[in-house]
Amino acid sequence: MSHEYRDRVYIRKDILLKLTEFGELNQTNLLSYCGLNLMKHKDILESLERKGFIKRTEIPWGNKKVIKYSVTEKGRQLCKMVLEPYEEIFPRSEKSVQEQG
Fold first, then answer.
1. For position 1, what pLDDT does the model report?
2. Over the range 56-85, which residues count as b (16 or more CB within 10 Å of their CB) and which as e?
3. How far is Cα 60 from Cα 88, in angstroms, rounded to an integer?
4. 14, 29, 39, 57: which could form a disulfide with 25 (CB 3.0–4.6 Å)?
5. What are phi and psi of 53, to 5 degrees?
């Protein structure tokens, strides 16, 4: 797995796309699928939730709780109207630029 720097815009897009793809994911799976670290990227999840782009649900499981996330309609619209055009204008890598040209 590559350890290249990934702009926060792309991290947000990856989160929204994975949640759209799967409908709902527990925190561990979401972070794993997106290649994120909870300690390093928790602020991004909290920001997306606070702004209404994702929904966080806590489900009791014995004496613990499972945290699940899902994308909201507002999050789907953000991805479609802003993040997808952003990636089209500013592709993630030179490989993407070469494929388009």
1. 44
2. eeeeeeeeeeeebbbbbeebeebbeeebee
3. 41
4. 29
5. -90, -25
Q: 3-state DSSP call for residue 42?
A: helix
Locate the DSSP E strands across 49-88: 54-61, 64-71
Strands annotated E in 2-79 = 24-26, 54-61, 64-71
**Does residue 62 come out as left (phi exceeding 0), alpha (psi in the -120 to 50 range) or beta?**
left
Read off the pTM: 0.78
Cα–Cα distance, 88 to 83 (Å, whole number): 9
Quick: pLDDT tens for 37-92. 989 999 999 999 999 999 999 999 899 999 999 999 999 998 888 888 888 888 87
- Give the strands of the sheet with 54-61, arranged side by side: 24-26, 64-71, 54-61
